[in-house]
Task: structure prediction
Amino acid sequence: MNKSLDPPSLTRLELAELETFLWVVREGSFSVAARKLHLSQPAVTNRVKRLEDKLRVKLLVRTTRRVEATPDGERLRDAAERAVAGLREALRHFQVASDYERNTVTVAVTPMLSATVMPSLIHAYTERYPDVRIVLHDLPYDQVLREVAEGRADLAVAALDGTPRGLRFQTLAEEPMLLVVPARHALADQQTVTMDMILPYPLMMLDRYKSLFKRLKDEYAARGAPFSPATIATLPTLLGMIDAGNGITLLPRSMAQNNGRRSRVTLSISDLDASRRYGSLVASKAELNAAAANFQAYLRKNFKATLESIV
Result:
C-alpha cells in the first residue's frame, strides 16, 4: 500500500486554538490565559481540548503548581511560535503599507500651477499634517485629465474650460485675463485698452484656451474683423514669440504677472469680460479617502489666497 507524500493538511487547525494554547503554555495557567485573552476559563479549556483532539496527542499536563507542555506540546509550541511570529510580522508589514498608501495623496497638476501655487500649498499642508505625503505629478493638461480619469491620481488641479466627461470639477479660484504685449509695442504705454484697440495686431494664444478662443471669435465677428490667431502649445514658446515682437496674447493675471519681464507689459481690456477658472478634479465615480478629501478641502479654503499672493 502506497503512503501519500503530501504534507499533513492544516485546514482543520484554527489560529485561535493555536494562540490560546501558546498563552496557556506561556502563563502556565488556564485562568491567567483566559484573563489575558478576555475569555472564560471553560472557553480556553475547550479550545485546547479541540486542538488536542484534532492532533490526537496530549499537549498539556497539570502539575501541582502549574500547567506544563508535554514533549509533543513543546514541539507544537516551538513550531507555532515561529509560525505566529512570522504571521504577525507579515500583518505588520501589510498594516504599514496600508497606512502609507492611505496617507499618500497623489495630485496631478499642470506645469504653471506646479511651479507657482502648489509648492507653498503643499509645504503648508504637510507642516500641518506631517503624517500625510503629497505626491505631485507635473504634467501637460491632457495627461492631467487622464491621470485622474484612469485612477493614477487621486485628484487634479488645473485651469479648465468646461468639465470633461467622467470628471467632477470644483472651482477653487477665478481670475481675469490680461493682455500681454512687448514692452516696445504701440499699446505698451496704455493702462487699459479696448477690443477695438487690439484688433489691428496679430494675436497669439495657447491652444488649450478653447473657451477664450470662442469668446474672442465672437467679439471679433461682432466688430466685422477676421479672427485667425496663431495657436501655440506651450507657455515658454508663446512668451518667446511675444518677446520677439511676433504678436500679442492674453493670459490669466497670475501667469502674466508671474512671468513678467521688462520686455513685456500687461494691460487690462475694459470691454472684455473673460476669466480663467481653476479647480480640483476627481473621477465622477471616485470616493476619496480621508487624506485626499482633507487635502481637497484645504485647497478649497486656501488656493485663492495663495494664487493672489504670488502675483
